[in-house]
Design a protein that fits this description.
By secondary structure, this protein is mostly helical. It has one domain. The longest helix has 26 residues.
Length: 55
């Protein structure tokens, strides 16, 4: 596996963890956790867009 694939796999795992935090926030009804997980996922999306732009 090339270095770029490891990088994308890492970001995919980060995004998966963000989705899990989002689900936990929805189940708990915690607004702060909800906004934190949305912010986390938005940040991951920006990093992934940057990776895609380099190719």
């Amino acid at each position: 596996m090339s270095g770029g694939r490891f990088e994308v796999a890492g970001w995919a795992l980060f995004s998966f963890s963000g989705v899990l935090f989002l689900v936990a926030a929805l189940r708990a009804g915690d607004a702060l956790l909800l906004w934190g997980s949305i912010t986390w996922l938005a940040g991951v999306a920006l990093f992934l867009a940057g990776i895609r732009g380099r190719r």
